[in-house]
Amino acid sequence: MASRAAGEDTPKVEILKDALYEEMTQHGSSDRLYNQNDLINLNIIPKNDLSLLLKVVQGLCDDRLLIATSDNRMGIAWRYRSREDAKKYTSLPNNETAMVYELIDEAGGDGIWSRTLKGRLKIHESVLKTCIKYLETKGYITDMKSVEHPNKKMYIKANLRPSDRATGGPWYTDSNLDEAFITGLERIIFNFIRMKSAHFREGATKVPKKGVAGGAGAAARGKKRAATEMSEEGTPAAAPAPTAHGAPGRRQSSYLPFPAGYNYYPTAHEIAEFISISGITNNTTLSEDDVQQLVDILCYDGLIEPVVVGRRRGYRTARISRLEPDDAAKLKEEEESGEESRLGPPPVSNGFVEAPCGRCPVFELCEEGGPVNPSNCVYFQRWLGLE
Amino acid sequence: MKVTKDLAELCALLIDEIYGELPSRIFAVLLNRGRSSLGQLGQYTSMTPRQLRHGLAVLIQQNLLYYYIDNDTKTATYEANPEPAYNLIRTGKILEMVESAHGAPVKDVMQSLLLLGQTRVSDLKAAYEEKIKRSTEGAQHANSDLDMVDGEAPPAAKKANLPVKSARQLNSIICRLAEAELVDVVHGLTFASPEDIQKDVEERVTRVKFPGGVKGGKGKTEFEEAVAMELCKIRRESKSLKRKLEESGATAAKRRKLLNGGVTAVNGVNGDHDADGDPVLDPRQVIRVNYEKCLVELRNRRLVQFASEMIGDTSSYVYGVVLRQLTKKVSRCHTDPNMDIGDMGDEDGTRQPVVTTMEILDNLPTTIDPSNGLAKVARSRINKLSAEAVQPNPPDPNKIPFLGGGDDEDDDESDESDVEMNGKHESEDESDKDAKSGVNGTAGKVRFAEPARKEGRVDMLRQHLYLLAENRIPFIRQCANEQWTVDFTILVQHLREAELDAVIERTVGRQGLRLVRILRKNGKLDEKALPSISLMKKSDVQNKMLEMEIAGFVDIQEVPRDNSRTANRTIFLWYTDTDRCIHTLLNNTYKTATRCLQRLSVHRRKEKDVLLLTKRTDVKGREKDVMQKEYYDRFAKLLEVERKLLGHMMRMDEMVAVLRDY
């Protein structure tokens, strides 16, 4: 077909090809699909000559400037490819290399597995290897690692960045789950929620007998606290610091819950805002969804709980009364030792897990008269302090 | 009550611990073999009929047996009753509960009842009279302290070593216990197993009301209703004492007055009341401890503890008052599916009890200051509508509330004016209380001088109630304006889950708990979806899941994608079955309690010689002075071990109660 077109009016087709291509680039990005009608409506092809259009499109496809695709809704359609990219194709030595490059190109940001390449193209391993090697040395493609398939050898176009699916989003650095980053953020979010969702009563303040003055004072303090916090950029870990300079003979500090219907429990949106303003994550941007994911984790961990007030879905710390205020000395100690302390209140305990049996590795085997039995139990001996 | 192997073992051990080996062996055989006659028992145990009769007598005395007499053959068959057997473990806790709620003398009577099993009132009286006679002089000295029966002055008990000082007091205590339903009446059918009663009643109903047989769906429901009515009648039998008390008009308030009069009478002012003044107390009446009601009270205590854990102490006190008011008429934690069908209009009240805010306020002890335990914020920061929303229907128990999507139904009811009015009214009351010496006028002035603090006691109380209602755990529900109720079934389910979660967290760590909760919320999840939801490393997730599968907290389902069933063509779905976990945990708890008891007997066996020594009459009671130091140290150590193990069994029982009974 192409040879026949070349025989007749080549110059005209060449001009039309250029014109059509230019017009297509003017009409949208390289992701836009054009079907036959769209192309005709561009008013490049004179007299809506379909056979002429066929020739022009065929020519463009041969030059790798157009990519034919099929779309469920539109039928067969085309999209254009930039001239530089097309040049890369034309500079390739043989068809196999071009096909390999095409598949990698199509895979986009997700990358493609070398075995998939082989399977799709049905070419020999060695041929594929030389193709890939050639493309790699030319700098057209590069290998990548996907989080989902860490052991597969994947390839991606060199000028593309791996997609979020391949990198795992903000939680991964160098395709490894960045646990330190996650726990750090969890801590920050937890402290933020704790600060905003519970009233901190300092140990030193004496509540007057009827609580008149104290009540007003507490209310004022509560308000001030909440208001300033909005604009404050300081690290939330510093928030409960007042305990540190409490009077020596202080009463026990504690957190108090807000009354029901409290309208200012932080929402995921506010938390995301706080994180982005504070600039803790300087080189990664966290979307609200990412923050929501972290918040959900905290919920699953039982550290915070959702509260729905009206249409507002806020979060507050769970088991407020059991929350222990941060001890400045303890915090420092942790910093020095480099150990992360446990977030939130101490875990609930019950009789079962404290008995030796609750955590006995051979509990199932234990039976009177068996090889493991209550009489010769070493755990009980230790637990009863008889060793 | 489903009896597992571990529970059977535990029950036998408990009976052994308290009543000795003979009843324990018979009980164990009955549990293992099921209903047996005396002859069969002889075969199974190779004991003489004489021994068996002795053992059976003890068991019957403690209501540990059911028996059934066949009218045709005139033979009796016996069946184990595991519930009271298990309840033996709970004795200490019940006594403690009774003491804190009703005072030391009541506890003493309860203790006697628990020790004696079912007792005739006259016998109990005789026992106490004997005791009183023995220490009359002590009693006379302490008579002025008698008003401690009200439960407010238990220290008096320490002064005189006899907590119950007169037959009159005993009488009133028994009435009091009966009224609180902590004690009920033994009647003929107490010893028939529920199945027998059910069968009997069904037969009778068919004979009397449905001679032609039960036909059709309508007939069936009618039949069921008739059976339920009969069963309820039988159940009510045990409450006859309470009813009689109520009918005779001897309510708590009146009797208290009577009793106070009695005190003065003993002091010699007005001596015409005789010792057993309450005519309703038939001396031949046999009474026993009603464990079902005790459980209700224990559940209240546990729930208060739970509320304090989740919210705060002050709120939990308020909650305690709410629960006390609500459960006054509740006789048992679980409704019986056979008896409580539909709206039976049973006096026990299958309908949900309701308490109003004012009732709560009336019963709130004055020592509790509801202004504590809550942060104060400006009114503008409160969404009143949401906080005070009325939820007329209980939440759907099938819906998992954890992380569930928020249904925000905003009821447009606003009772602001009402609140305002009540608030003012109450604050006046309160200032009255504050300025005890002051007159009303000054109190009013104080209030005007502080316009910022308009919130009265009732407002603060309301705040606590709202807070309880708002919590993730549905502690309380405002079912109508200013009316509160508690959905116990749902609440206890949460409590169970919390208990299970504590075990999971302690066994496999916080991350394990995270995974379990994710599964609980999402149902079945593909192995590949878990790491991204939990933000954990894939390998970590896999290890944790394996660990938890071994521990029995999660399970896996394999769904092959094709017939080849190879591993890489199979979808692996993780899931967690909370109910099953709870059952396993329950059984493990039985087992742990059993191990504690067994361990105790191991220690006792080891120190047999010391124990033999302490049993000698010349040593008993003054071990420290008489025994050699070496021996005494061993004895003290054993006591220490015993205390630890028995204490731990109590904690196991606490778990069993949560997981099974509440």
Automatic annotation (TrEMBL), chain A:
InterPro entries: RNA_pol_Rpc34, RNA_pol_Rpc34-like, WH-like_DNA-bd_sf, WH_DNA-bd_sf
This protein's UniProt keywords: DNA-directed RNA polymerase, Nucleus, Transcription
Native species: Coniochaeta ligniaria NRRL 30616
Function: DNA-dependent RNA polymerase catalyzes the transcription of DNA into RNA using the four ribonucleoside triphosphates as substrates. Specific peripheric component of RNA polymerase III which synthesizes small RNAs, such as 5S rRNA and tRNAs.
Signal peptide, first to last residue: none
Compartment(s) of residence: Nucleus
Biased composition (Low complexity): 234-249
Family: Belongs to the eukaryotic RPC34/RPC39 RNA polymerase subunit family.
GO biological process: transcription by RNA polymerase III
Region described as Disordered: 211-250, 327-348
Pfam name, any one: RNA_pol_Rpc34
One cellular component (GO) term of this entry: RNA polymerase III complex
Name this polypeptide is given: DNA-directed RNA polymerase III subunit RPC6
Matching Gene3D superfamilies: Winged helix-like DNA-binding domain superfamily/Winged helix DNA-binding domain
Main localisation: nucleus
UniProtKB/TrEMBL annotation, chain B:
Any one Gene Ontology cellular component term annotated for this protein: RNA polymerase III complex
Domain of life: Eukaryota
Region entry Disordered, spans: 386-450
Biased composition (Acidic residues): 406-419
GO biological process, one term: DNA-templated transcription
Domain RNA polymerase III Rpc82 C -terminal: start-end pairs: 173-494
One annotated GO molecular function: single-stranded DNA binding
Principal location listed in the UniProt entry: nucleus
Location of the protein in the cell: Nucleus
Keywords, sorted A to Z: DNA-directed RNA polymerase, Nucleus, Transcription
Quaternary state and interactors: Component of the RNA polymerase III (Pol III) complex consisting of 17 subunits.
Family: Belongs to the RNA polymerase beta chain family.
Task of the protein: DNA-dependent RNA polymerase catalyzes the transcription of DNA into RNA using the four ribonucleoside triphosphates as substrates. Specific core component of RNA polymerase III which synthesizes small RNAs, such as 5S rRNA and tRNAs.
Annotated protein name in UniProt: DNA-directed RNA polymerase III subunit RPC3
